[in-house]
Write a structure and sequence with these properties.
- The structure is a single chain.
- The chain is α+β, with helices and mostly antiparallel strands and about 110 residues long.
- Helices cover about 20% and strands about 50% of the residues.
- The chain has 1 helix and 5 strands; from the N terminus they run E-E-E-E-E-H.
- Strands 1, 2, 3, 4 and 5 form a 5-stranded antiparallel sheet that branches.
- Strand 1 and strand 2 form a beta hairpin.
- The longest helix is centred in the C-terminal third of the chain and has 20 residues.
- The protein starts with a strand and ends in a 7-residue tail after the last helix.
Length: about 110
């Protein structure tokens, strides 16, 4: 599983973007216009392991053809947790056993 993921980009739309969704979660990204680009980025918790789907809802209020151009780049860090080797587990168990034996030997003996 990844520990972090993010993307950044820009878009131009005719007429505007009403919603951007990542895996069905609406992101706080809106704007538009076809004569300029709108920048955006996201690095939140809507990412999931495996395939991620980014979708854009375009509103065309003026009629005619609909247009959308998106430039996108992203990063992710895929780090798996370290799993101890069997020999390490064995040494750890022996160490805990020795601590237990030592603690048992060091009990004070009370005379009656």
């Amino acid at each position: 599983a990844f520990t972090s993921a993010a993307f950044t980009g820009n878009f131009a739309a005719d007429d505007s973007i009403t919603a951007v969704r990542l895996n069905g979660v609406t992101l706080p990204i809106t704007g538009g216009g076809f004569t300029f680009y709108t920048g955006f980025n996201y690095a939140g918790s809507a990412f999931q392991t495996g395939v991620n789907t980014l979708s854009f809802d375009v509103l065309n209020s003026g009629g005619g053809p609909v247009g959308l151009q998106v430039g996108l780049s992203g990063t992710f860090e895929n780090v798996t947790g370290a799993v101890p080797e069997p020999a390490t587990w064995g040494l750890m168990l022996v160490g805990f056993g020795m601590v237990g034996v030592s603690a048992r030997r060091n009990k004070a003996i009370v005379a009656a």
